[in-house]
Amino acid sequence: MTAPLLVLGWGNPSRGDDALGPMLVDALAAYAGRALPAGAVDCLSDYQLQIEHALDLVGRERVLFVDAAVGLDAAFAVSAVQPQRERQITSHALSPPALLQVFVDLQGCAPPECSLLALRGRRWALGEVPDAAACEDLARALEWATGWLERFASPQVAEQGVIA
Fold first, then answer.
1. Using CA of residue 125, residue 128, residue 132, residue 135, what is the dihedral sign?
2. Which residues lie below 8 Å from residue 79, measured CB to CB, with a gap of 6+?
3. N or C, which end of the chain is more exposed by having fewer CB within 10 Å?
4. What is the pLDDT of residues 61-94, one digit of tens each?
């Protein structure tokens, strides 16, 4: 059975703050395992978005993409993601909008509602680990993301038909 919610993060755990995406996904998976109904959410992480991930979106109601980003002034930022064709699509390293466009092209229908949770990244060198500031930003983003899961995984919310 496909869970209605998907958290899909990416990044390289060996490259400093690039690890923040997978770290947040791991923390959300642990949280979901103890606090949410079974089967409410799937949590996946990878080194980068690839065209194959379009198949992970099939049957979902909502998707939360998670990645570290350069140039954020705040600990994290959340934005809606819409399908968009990129000038050049390769077999790997897609953006979330390009991945949604692949979904539309393959499935012939609109994708699930998708948001991008971008985490502030500062350090990207091979062999570095996230520092204390990055971990503080991660904690703030995790608080927001657990609220997102609770909001959409709750049977009461689904029964009331609340859409946000």
1. positive
2. 115, 116, 118
3. N
4. 999 999 999 999 999 999 999 999 987 666 557 9
Looking at the 3D structure of the chain, how many domains does it have?
Answer: 1
Mean pLDDT of 27-55: 95
Are 22 and 65 in contact, with CB atoms under 8 Å apart? no
**This prediction's pTM:** 0.91
Domain ranges, residue 103: 5-160
49, two tokens: 């978005």
**DSSP-based three-state secondary structure for 3:** coil
What does the pLDDT read at residue 50?
92
Q: What is the 3-state secondary structure (H, E, C) of 70-122?
A: CCCCCCEEEEEECCCCCCCCCCECCCHHHHHHHHHHHHCCCCCEEEEEEEECC
60 with 22: CB under 8 angstroms?
no
Looking up residue 137, the CATH number of its domain turns out to be 3.40.50.1450
Amino acid 1: pLDDT: 79
Using CA atoms, how far apart are residues 59 and 2, in angstroms rounded to an integer? Answer: 6
How many percent of the chain have pLDDT more than 90? 86
Report pLDDT for 88: 67
